[in-house]
């Protein structure tokens, strides 16, 4: 994964955490923590799927 891609994903995740922290959570800290964990899991999933797609493209180009 390119450094620019890693930076882009990290920046997006950081913004997501800031947004979650700024929101009011009736459940308090446990609910906030759960939202942060789900958000990070989504960002990691996004990064992994992106790499899988890029790897398939690279293999396809090499095979041609």
Task: Provide an overview of this structure.
This protein has 64 residues and is mainly α. Helix content is 86%, strand content 0%. Helix 1 packs antiparallel against helix 2. The protein is elongated.
Short summary of the structure?
This protein is an all-alpha fold. The protein is 86% helix and 0% strand. The chain contains 2 helices and no strands.
Structural class computed from helices and strand pairing: mainly alpha
Distance between the termini: 22 Å
- Average pLDDT confidence is 87
The rough form would be described as elongated
- CA-atom Rg in angstroms: 16 Å
- Percentage of residues in helical conformation: over 70%
Q: List SSEs in N-to-C order.
A: HH
Give the SSE map.
Blueprint: H1 3-22, H2 29-63
Describe the structure using short key phrases.
single chain; 64 residues
């Amino acid at each position: 994964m390119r450094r620019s891609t890693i930076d882009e994903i990290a920046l997006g995740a950081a913004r997501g955490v800031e947004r979650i922290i700024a929101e009011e959570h009736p459940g308090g800290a446990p609910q906030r923590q759960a939202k942060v964990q789900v958000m990070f899991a989504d960002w990691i999933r996004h990064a992994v799927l992106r790499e899988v797609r890029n790897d398939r493209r690279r293999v396809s180009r090499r095979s041609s």
